[in-house]
Amino acid sequence: MEIGPSLAAIVTGGASGLGRASALALAGAGVKVAVFDLNEEAGTALAAEINGLFCKVDIMSEDSVLAGFAAARAAHGQERVLVHCAMVAGGGKTLGWDKETGALKRASTEGFERAMLGIAVATYRVASIAAQGMAGAEPLNADGERGTIVLTSSAASQDGQIGQVAYGAGKGAVNAMVLPMARDLMDLGVRVNAIVPGIFATPPMLGVKDKAPAIYAGLEASVPFPRRLGRPDEFASLMLELVRNTYLNGQCLRIDGGIRMPPK
């Protein structure tokens, strides 16, 4: 797919971290970008910076997501690129000792359900709505390509970290979604891929650096090469290649400096 001013894109979670870097990269290539996020202040500021559009969208709400897509399409036309970075997640060990009572405590089913809704279900919601719009658009090239969807997974989906049963399961569902969705959409000219990042210097991780520099240094040292956390612009660079390269389809691509995260 040729990247340029003729394209419109939607980036969820675009106000910060990997989503922000993706929005900046797409806008830098001339693409019209709509930023979906709940953070109105940061999202509006970014939209002004890139001459884009901010839509306050809650990915947990079907109505909110549909309204966001409608607003983005009214402003920029049918999106041909979706980059989905937003999520609602949860953590906790399946069973763990309560520090205050000493009792064995179970992570709640409700917390697990919320993570699945905020990762797996929200991913399907956003991707399927985008695909439906793309499928009705005119082909962009001789291959018949109409659009491309880039989802965000996590190395936690494969590396089995302690305390991430809900998060890992949600991101594992994203991985499992990619190939069947790509095949569902193959006759419509819509590609689907996922990026599987390792540890990146996003706002939550930078918070660790401020509050617990020794832990942050340990995270950096755990990466084989380069010995640092990933930069959001490196995620965005891979995202651009997934958009650009029409022959990439149905893939879950790790970008992690070679890390295979230990259990804890």
Question: What descriptive keywords fit this protein?
Answer:
single chain, 264 residues, alpha/beta, Sc_DH/Rdtase_CS, SDR family oxidoreductase, Rossmann fold, NAD(P)-bd_dom_sf, seven-stranded parallel sheet, oxidoreductase activity
Task: Itemize the secondary structure elements and their pairings.
Elements: E1 8-12, H1 17-28, E2 32-37, H2 40-49, E3 53-56, H3 62-76, E4 81-84, E5 95-97, E6 104-106, H4 109-135, E7 147-152, H5 156-159, H6 165-184, E8 190-197, H7 203-211, H8 213-221, H9 232-244, E9 252-255
Parallel strand pairs: 1-2, 1-4, 2-3, 4-7, 7-8, 8-9
Antiparallel strand pairs: 5-6
Helix pairs in contact: 1-9, 3-4, 4-6, 7-8
Protein name: SDR family oxidoreductase
GO molecular function, one term: oxidoreductase activity
Pfam family, one: adh_short_C2
Shape: globular
Tell how many strands the DSSP assignment holds. Answer: 9
List the uncertain runs.
none
CATH topology: Rossmann fold
Textual characterization of the structure:
The chain is α/β, with parallel strands linked by helices and 264 residues long. The protein has one domain (8-198, 238-255): Rossmann fold (3-Layer(aba) Sandwich). It is 45% helix and 16% strand. The chain is built from nine helices and nine strands. It has helices spanning 17-28, 40-49, 62-76, 109-135, 156-159, 165-184, 203-211, 213-221, 232-244, and strands spanning 8-12, 32-37, 53-56, 81-84, 95-97, 104-106, 147-152, 190-197, 252-255. The strands form two sheets. It has a seven-stranded parallel beta sheet with strand order 3-2-1-4-7-8-9, sandwiched between helices. α1 crosses α9 and α7 (203-211) crosses α8. The longest helix is centred in the middle third of the chain and has 27 residues, at 109-135. It is globular and about 60 Å long. It starts with 7 loop residues before the first strand and ends in a 9-residue tail after the last strand. The mean pLDDT is 95. InterPro entries: NAD(P)-bd_dom_sf, Sc_DH/Rdtase_CS, SDR_fam. This is SDR family oxidoreductase. One of its GO terms (molecular function) is oxidoreductase activity.
